[in-house]
Design goal:
Structural class of chain B: alpha/beta
Strand order of the largest sheet of chain A: 1-4
Helix content of chain A: over 70%
CATH class of the largest domain in chain B: Alpha Beta
Radius of gyration of chain B: 23 Å
Oligomer: heterodimer
Shape of chain B: globular
Helix content of chain B: 25-40%
Distance between the termini of chain A: 15 Å
Strand content of chain A: under 5%
Distance between the termini of chain B: 56 Å
Bound molecules: adenosine-5'-triphosphate, magnesium ion
CATH topology of the largest domain in chain B: Rossmann fold
CATH class of chain A: Mainly Alpha
Structural class of chain A: mainly alpha
CATH architecture of the largest domain in chain B: 3-Layer(aba) Sandwich
Shape of chain A: globular
Order of helices and strands of chain A: HHHHHEHEEHHHHEHHH
Number of strands of chain A: 4
CATH architecture of chain A: Orthogonal Bundle
Largest sheet of chain A: 2 strands, antiparallel
Number of domains of chain B: 2
Number of helices of chain A: 13
Number of strands of chain B: 22
Chain lengths: 333, 505
């Protein structure tokens, strides 16, 4: 046995397997599930969650977390709508830049509080979850725009959200590009490996000369930017926005990350795993009505998946530890 | 004076460094010069301030006053990163690892070799890590995560870290504490090589033979103040000890009749794949049996399996004629077995809790055989043991993390000794403990044995095993290769069995 990396870890293979089983069962019940439209919708929905989960992975690897994802996404989605209310002909790229920038600013606020004020991310982002949402609602009532509808947005923007390139939804392509980039950085760049080091043992990271504060702030900004991107894409895809977009999304995001094998106490996990986790949770959500379970149960399922994964992680970790001990000795025996 | 003139200009100089932590004055005006090409020893009792010097050189702490001069220039070392950029490498007393990352990544974190496009060159990294491990004589797999490694292996990684950079000031805080003589000798070879190439080394150890074997000069600290600095050729061992402790210490091992009571611990045919094979031995009540062997020979694993922290594949363990259930430490404790584990920091301390709290943790109650032990009496015992082992403690209400490395060891050791078991397994009981306290530990173990305690003493320090044990078991690659009565146990017979040179059993 060697410890060299394989393309997919055991955990990731497990998720792929679960996905296959789920898809097979659901398709057996209703063949339309795997139809072109079904797949298209599935991937579109998974794409937005993937963007959020990939950003969250960066944070969780460093032993941080962002509970304000849903609110940040709501804020940036609402921003997209507001931009079109103000100027119907804004180019798509400008909206994208504005959304990403706003997300980054939200991330920077979180990151600054965590890194500089040394308050745990759990507490900081629980606070900003409500602050950002409050701003969102406040903005809505101040401008009197309860809801922005598709007809108020530019056709270009809506086409951007629902378009495809060579049959692959554009949102999915964007998610894949982001996933590949983040995966690359995490695997092969020093800065990426340093994130694992920070999460694995903060004290050792300091001794190794890693500028943890700077890295954590950067990760909050990047992750915020990705959330901002997701918010804009959400607006472009759904075409209807109000101030409550993304409420409660933090549960699905954290669940996807944890299901994907990213250790909640930091130090291990991959963006690929988190993306697979997002795909699995989205598929479950899509499969529930077909299997006769009311969609109301979605939150409960997300929560259960989260708990199940954490228990699984514990068991796996215990076994890994004893196997590592054994292998160390096998060399001598 | 003549010597000072001959000596080249020091690479690193500390001038009148003081440092205090709240009420504790850890360093009082310490000056130290490390010339290129020299290995300098820093000696002193637990809590004397050695690690504080190390942390100041390593940029972890900033001195309250005093100047650090590097290559003739005053510098401010405001962070570990700064220190590293100035060519300073530190081997920490407590190895710090990234348990999720590979051994090679642990060694090279922040300095991984790069390929085109600033990508990490994993192959080069693994190869270089493997070379370093090879040079240190412990061929770890560079690609395995470091979770679950023994203290000795962690120590090797810590050393490899310091050697991997291009440092020319290398500070080693008790690098050999977890190593046996063989690995330590390898390290010395490497250290001498570095000094030969013009590096300046600072070396800390409580084993004075190592100080004499490796170092050119020795500086003694007591209570944070510099007591003496002399060339090792000019100061003899007894003087050195007197300077450290403030009095003479008799380091004769206590005389004791070999134990001959009933068989208290009987181990038969114990197996665990990959760890140890077919291990059988007995320890009589009143007997001290030493267990010697090289790093990785499976001694700690055996101890853990006997106690039940780890499982076992086959074999039986009996304590006072009663079979122990496998993998059930609680059951073992209830039947009078105690294990002072190798990794006392990980398995014996809660660093955030106060010293007092640590000494009276619930475990102590669980270990008591009569079921009822009051908190206050636990605390009193722990304090008594603290005094016996000469623990230097500011306030018992401070967090255990603020204790010096050796004092943390004493805290845990005292806590376990106070539980009064009938069979005691101690894994490296004097690691990191200063000379005077070592003598205390030895005489305590001997006193307890004389009162009928059966002791299995695991130690990498050969003189300790030879001096304390009535009988010496030697392990090599998971097997017991020798069972030597006191008369036949010599450095040579033990080392031969430990290295597998000859089957002496
Ligand atoms: N962070 C801290 N807070 C409070 N006190 C501290 C701290 N670090 C060290 N001390 C105290 O400073 C003194 C010197 O500690 P230091 O670790 O330098 O000792 P040492 O010589 O390395 O001992 P040992 O041989 O046991 O490793 C001790 O009394 C210790 O309790
Ligand atoms: Mg120390």
């Amino acid at each position: 046995m060697t410890w060299r990396r394989r393309p997919l870890s055991g955990r990731e293979l497990g998720i792929v397997f679960a996905l296959l089983v789920l898809v097979a069962v659901t398709t057996a019940v209703n063949p339309a599930f795997l139809g072109a439209q079904g797949l298209h919708d599935l991937f579109l929905n998974a794409s937005i969650l993937t963007l959020l989960a990939v950003g969250q992975t960066l944070l969780v690897i460093t032993r941080n977390i962002d509970l304000s994802v849903g609110s940040t996404m709501g804020l940036t989605a609402f921003l997209s709508g507001q931009i079109y209310v103000a100027d119907h002909d804004t180019p798509v790229i400008a909206v994208l830049v504005a959304g990403i920038a706003m997300g980054a600013v939200c991330g920077a606020v979180n990151g600054a509080l965590v890194a500089a004020a040394k308050v745990p991310a759990l507490v900081v982002t629980l606070g900003t979850l409500y602050v950002f949402r409050g701003l969102d609602y406040g903005w809505a009532s101040l401008t009197g725009t309860r809801q922005v509808n598709a007809d108020q947005m530019s056709g270009q923007f809506l086409a951007f959200g629902s378009g495809s390139v060579l049959g692959v939804p554009r949102l999915t392509l964007i998610a894949i590009v982001v996933l590949v980039a983040v995966n690359y950085v995490l695997r092969t760049m020093r800065s990426g490996r340093e994130l694992y080091a920070i999460g694995s043992n903060p004290h050792a990271a300091r001794l190794a000369g890693i500028p943890a504060g700077k890295r954590i702030l950067a990760v909050f900004v990047v992750s915020g930017a990705l959330v901002g991107l997701a918010g804009v894409l959400h607006a472009a895809y759904f075409g209807t926005i109000n101030a409550s977009v993304g409420s409660g999304e933090e549960l699905a995001v954290v669940a996807a990350v944890v299901v994907g094998g990213v250790a909640i106490f930091g130090g291990s996990g991959t963006a690929m795993g988190a993306a697979l986790g997002a795909l699995l949770l989205t598929t479950i959500t899509g499969a529930l009505p077909i299997l006769g379970v009311p969609a109301l149960w979605q939150r409960a399922v997300d929560g259960a998946a989260l708990l199940l994964s954490i228990s699984l992680d514990r068991a796996v970790m215990a076994r890994l530890a004893s196997r590592l001990r054994r292998e160390r000795n096998a060399r001598h025996g | 004076m003549a010597e000072a003139e001959r000596a080249p200009r020091p690479l690193l100089e500390l001038c009148h460094i003081t440092k205090s932590f709240q009420a504790v004055q850890a360093l009082r005006g310490v000056s130290l010069a490390l010339p290129a090409g020299e290995v300098h020893a820093l000696a002193g009792e637990n809590g004397a301030g050695k690690s504080t010097v190390v942390r100041i050189i390593g940029g972890e702490h900033q001195p309250d006053s005093g100047v650090i001069v590097l290559r003739g220039e005053p510098v401010r070392l405001s962070s570990p990163l700064q220190a590293r950029r100035h060519g300073i490498a530190v081997i920490h007393q407590e190895p710090v690892q990234f348990p999720d990352l590979s051994a090679a990544e642990n060694v090279f974190m922040g300095r991984q070799p790069l390929r085109a496009g600033r990508r990490i060159d994993r192959e080069a990294m693994n190869r270089r890590a493997a070379e370093l491990f090879e040079r240190l004589g412990v061929p770890l797999d560079p690609t395995r995560p470091t979770r679950g490694l023994s203290i000795a292996d962690q120590q090797i990684i810590e050393i490899a870290k310091a050697l991997s950079g291009k440092a020319d000031v290398i500070v080693m805080d008790e690098p050999t504490a977890a190593l046996s003589a063989v690995e330590a000798e390898r390290l010395f070879t490497v250290a001498r090589g570095l000094a030969g190439q013009g590096a300046a080394l600072l070396f800390i150890s409580h084993r004075l033979e190592e100080v004499y074997a490796l170092c050119d000069r020795v500086t003694v600290l007591r209570d944070g103040a510099l007591v003496t600095s002399a060339s090792t050729g000019e100061i003899d061992r007894d003087t050195l000890v007197r300077r450290m402790v403030g009095r003479a210490v008799d380091h004769l091992f206590p005389e004791r009749e070999p134990g001959s009571g009933p068989e208290a611990l009987v181990v038969r045919g114990l197996n665990r794949a990959g760890a140890f094979h077919d291990v059988s031995f007995t320890v009589r009540s009143g007997e001290i049996v030493g267990l010697a062997g090289l790093v990785g020979s499976g001694r700690s694993e055996l101890a853990r399996a006997i106690f039940g922290v780890d499982g076992r594949d086959s074999g039986t363990v009996m304590v006072n004629g009663v079979l122990l259930p496998a993998a059930n430490p609680r059951g073992a404790i209830d039947r009078g077995l105690a294990l002072v584990p190798e990794d006392r920091r990980e398995q014996g301390l809660v660093p955030e809790l106060s010293i007092e709290r640590n000494a009276s943790l619930a475990r102590l109650g669980a270990v008591s055989r009569h079921g009822i032990v009051s908190r206050s009496s636990e605390r009193a015992t722990a304090r008594r043991w603290g005094e016996r082992l000469r623990m230097t403690v500011g306030r018992f209400t401070d967090a255990a993390a603020t204790l010096s490395g050796g004092n943390q060891q004493k805290l845990v050791l005292g806590k376990w000794l106070a539980t009064e078991p009938s069979v005691l397994i101690v894994d490296e009981p004097t690691r990191g403990i200063d000379i005077a306290a070592k003598v205390e530990v030895h005489s305590e173990l001997s006193r307890l044995a004389a009162e009928g305690l059966a002791v299995l003493l695991i130690s990498s320090e050969l003189p300790e095993v030879l001096g304390m044990a009535d009988r010496v078991l030697v392990m090599h690659e998971g097997r017991i290769t020798a069972d030597l009565p006191r008369e036949r146990a010599t450095e040579e017979t033990v080392m031969r069995a430990a290295t597998g040179t000859v089957d002496a059993a």
